[in-house]
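Q: I have 231 residues here and want to know how they pack in 3D. Can you give me a structure?
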Amino acid sequence: MRARCRIRTALPVAVLLYEAAVRPWHEHWGATESETVEILEGDHLLAEPAHQVTRAITIDASPQQVWPWIVQMGADRGGFYSYDWLENRFGLEIHSAREIRPEWQDLAVGDVVYANRARTGGWYVVELQPGEVLALAVADLLRDRPVRRTEGLRWEFLWTFAVRPAPDGKTRLVVRERVAFGRRLSQWLMSPMGFVSFVMTRKMMYGIKEHAESLATSERISQEAAAGNVA
């Protein structure tokens, strides 16, 4: 009896702690206050009311060295640079690339970035400014358009990647999620996905950072070597 009382008391406290401290932290991980409130290209494609999550990371590489890793994302392309082993536990067959592939650099509005090798799910490219912004909306592949909050599971999702120049030749990568629900039950059922998204997205951002910085270092060494040979 006492154990049940303790659980009943602890649960509301845990929920309040999560909502007050943990959730704001992971939903704004790495982002400045101005980055969390600024309007990104493509935000208008998911109408209000919408819940917005913004995360960011600084990469010691130029935007030109970061963008190729983003534009080649996809299960049948360069992967997502996250926990492949975990994604593949769900049969997604994702293998993240460790190099930039020219054949994966072409992407256009209307293309599908697939979430699995079977191509049964993914996102439509709904906004694309090469070298700057890529926005993806969850795809309803049967209807050949993004999902709508008025149908099916009653939710919409927009995933945006913004590449910004930063001081000293570095890059600021901002990753935003905008989600909206057509009914409270859908919002309640999908609530646990918020933290899962954080875990996978954080790993993905570190993966992009690692690959872009490695490329930048290799190019810098090659340039220095070439300059030395000329001298």
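Q: Anything worth noting?
A: DSSP finds six helices and seven strands in the chain. The CA atoms of residues 127 and 152 lie 24 Å apart.
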